[in-house]
């Protein structure tokens, strides 16, 4: 005869099957293609930085080799690939995305400063060459007015 065991006191009821939890979205803010590329570039840079020694070893081995680099530098290549696979994770990509978002304000400020400088340089250019807002010389407009007035 099979014996049944009663749950231990204080163990409570068994966990009821719950509804599957929805995963937290990794990309809460949709980015443009250029922004995604910037995040990817930052991600690749971070991975290459972590594997710099292995990349340097492989590059020094492969220097001045062509086809023979395939078998002559195999251990260095395998070490480099293993390092990159180890560090190329979703967590690293999320960290790169976070870094990109933290730099948004600095990039915006830099763009605004660059635009202000461009406007200032454009104004100086117009004053230096005596141009109006449309880029035409002010003297030419005066001569044109005099010519038109002289024809009347």
Q: In brief, what are we looking at here?
A:
This protein is mainly α and 152 residues long.
Features:
7 helices; elongated; 152 residues; mitochondrion; mainly alpha
Total helix count? 7
Low-confidence stretches: none
Per the principal axes of the C-alpha atoms, what is the gross shape?
elongated
Tally of strands: 0
Span of the ends, CA to CA: 126 Å
Number of domains: 2
Average residue-wise pLDDT: 82
Radius of gyration: 33 Å
β-strand amount? under 5%
Subcellular location: Mitochondrion inner membrane
Keywords: Chaperone, Disulfide bond, Membrane, Mitochondrion, Mitochondrion inner membrane
Region (Disordered): 1-34
Family: Belongs to the CMC family.
Please explain how this structure is put together.
The chain is mainly alpha-helical and 152 residues long. The protein has two domains: 31-102, no CATH class; 107-152, no CATH class. Helix content is 66%, strand content 0%. The chain contains seven helices and no strands. The N and C termini lie far apart (126 Å). Keywords: Chaperone, Disulfide bond, Membrane, Mitochondrion, Mitochondrion inner membrane. It comes from Lophium mytilinum. InterPro entries: Cyt_c_biogenesis_Cmc1-like. This is COX assembly mitochondrial protein.
């Amino acid at each position: 005869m099979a014996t049944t065991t009663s749950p231990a006191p204080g163990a409570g009821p068994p966990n009821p099957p719950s509804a599957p939890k929805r995963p937290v979205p990794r990309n809460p803010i949709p980015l443009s293609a250029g922004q995604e590329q910037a995040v990817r570039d930052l991600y690749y840079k971070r991975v290459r930085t972590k594997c710099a020694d292995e990349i340097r070893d492989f590059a020094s081995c492969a220097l001045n080799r062509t086809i023979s680099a395939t078998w002559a530098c195999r251990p260095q290549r395998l070490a480099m690939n293993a390092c990159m696979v180890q560090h190329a994770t979703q967590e690293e990509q999320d960290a790169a995305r976070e870094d990109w978002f933290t730099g948004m304000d600095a990039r915006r400020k830099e763009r605004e400063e660059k635009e202000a400088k461009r406007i200032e340089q454009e104004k100086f250019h117009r004053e230096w060459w005596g141009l109006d807002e449309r880029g035409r010389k002010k003297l030419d407009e005066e001569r044109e007015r005099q010519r038109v007035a002289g024809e009347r």
